[in-house]
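U., I forgot to send this yesterday:
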Amino acid sequence: MRKILWLDINSSYSHTSVALPAIETQMDSEAMGWEWSVVRGTINDSPGVIAAAVAECRPDVIAATFWLFNHRMQIEVLSRAVQLLDDVKVVCGGPEFLGCNHNFLKINPFVTAVVRGEGERALPEFLAVIDTPAAWNGISGLCWISDEDQKYYDNGVARVADFESLKFPEQSNFFNWEKPFVQLETTRGCFNTCAFCVSGGEKPVRYQSLEQVASRLEDICNKGIKDVRVLDRTFNYDTRRACQMLDLFAMYQGRMRFHLEIHPSLMSQELKDKIASLPVGLLHLEAGIQSLDDGVLNECGRKGNLKSSLEGLRYLAGLENVETHADLIAGLPLYRLDMLCRDVVTLVEMGVDELQIESLKLLPGTRMREMALEKGLRYSPLPPYEVMATPAMTTSDLRFAMNISRMIDFYYNASAWQGVIRKLIVERDGFLSDFTGYLKRIGVLDSPLSLERRGVILYEYVLEYCPEMVADISLAWIEGGFSLKKSPAGEVVKVKDIRGYLSGKESCMSVVYGEVNEAYRYYLYTVPSSEAFTSSGSDAVRSVIFGFCEEGVLKQPVVRVDFSD
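Result:
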């Protein structure tokens, strides 16, 4: 038996690739005379240690999948491993090789060949004739530099036309059931033509049958998996199939949760009604939006009516039974920083549950990479290929956009602070830029911050720049269960009789949050310390926050009362 070793380098041990089981399960390895093994590691491990582990296995062939996040580490390991082995062949695949691979093979001569495109058929075919280079021309997707004439050969892009005939990755002995989630691919390809996406030219869309999906879900559930991430590029491309799939998912209410990528412009009324009828907690929807400007989207080749996309996203964001994620891409052609900030405000106002801002990456094999010179896009030639400047965004603009991204992740994507941050972003012009600049000045954007520390920083900012929001921060702090002894809680006083405290003040008070209930025995309240709330002027406002306390622990409900002089 000859030995093939899979080098599995991931971002973490919980985020392993499905490439190995997806390919291995297609082979009758024993009949073909191949014995599989795997060496796993992460991008944070020592390349020398991993290379030594590879060499100890004495493989005849090393196979590895390249992504933009592990590209450098794979090269570090492979370049070392081949020095410890005699006559080993190296074959690589993955999204990194969807473009021309001449330069890669020339720079890394220890790589025998790469597979361009889908590998389930290509790699087994290559292994069957690995010792006969003359037969390599017949393998779709294979790229190599010939030892005989030093010419580059490229057999195009491999596509598995009979996608539904592939065996499932879960059927492989190498499928990792220990990680907290499972990736489920039920379609392959995409109807859209986004120039920045590796799937932009991947047509036609190929499907697994509903019966196949149902069988896979049952196996996944029986393994105790709680989180399923559906990899389909546009889940709702086919409304009828999408509704049928959602019916399948609903059968696992309370047992599994599903993450889907959905195009908000393709939201038919049938699909809206179906999603609205699903149980709470079943779906997490990622709505691809990228930009809210028609000109930018047209420049990127993205199909779909923007007005319909916004209507669909607003509908999804308004549903209480699903979580909605939206994303924007800084660095797209024609996309300015002010436009990005405007779009953030719009999405926040809609009420999306999560918001992400990514920098544009010019991935190999994408039309956007081919158009980089024409569009004036300056980008890193090394992974992750991030755009560093465009005619519409300077280097400083793009750095600031990434700072906004981190601010959004710190505050908006944290449930404890989302409500107050939404109010600040929507109601205060310039807050998005001003607060991001403040975080940059105090040097916290590049550091991990606890939820409590984020609250203290926000409270200090509000005290100085928008004191009328202090009560909102205090309310969020108290409801978040943070220490009542720290400054965002304000002045904490025990009150046994809330009605007595409020007596005579009814004419100038308004309950702006919660409901006053005299049935509770005593409360905690906070009076924000800002001068805006203690002045005696006619426009002064005093906010009091009450919370039922039991044995020193704050309980629900929390009530906010405002008093005006």
